[in-house]
Amino acid sequence: MADVFSWLGNEFALKPQIYQAVAGLICSTVVLFKLLRWMERKRCLAEIEKGGANRKQALSAMERAVLVFKESGRSGDTESILSLSLLELHEQLQEDSLSPDGVLHAYMEKALEVTKQLNCLTDFLPECQTQLQDLRQNKKGLLYGIPVSIKDNVNYKGHDSTCGLKTFLQQPAMKDSVIVQVLKKQGAIPFVKTNIPQSMLSYECSNPIFGQTVNPHDNKRTPGGSSGGEAALITAGGSILGIGSDIGGSIRVPAAFCGICGFKSTGKRLSKKGVRSSVPGQRTVVAAVGPLAKDVDSLVLCMKALLCEDMFQLDSTVPPIPFNNEVFSSSRRLRIGYYVNDAFWIPNASMKRAVMETKQLLEEAGHTLVPFTPPRAQYAWNELILRGIGADGGAILMQRLKGDKIDPILNDLYMTQKLPKLLKRIISFLLKPFSPRIAETCRYMSGVGSIGELWELHAAVEGVSGAVGLPLAVQCVALPWQDELCLRLMREVERVSQKKRTI
Question: What are the start-end ranges of the E strands in 58-207?
Answer without folding.
Answer: 121-124, 147-151, 189-194, 206-207
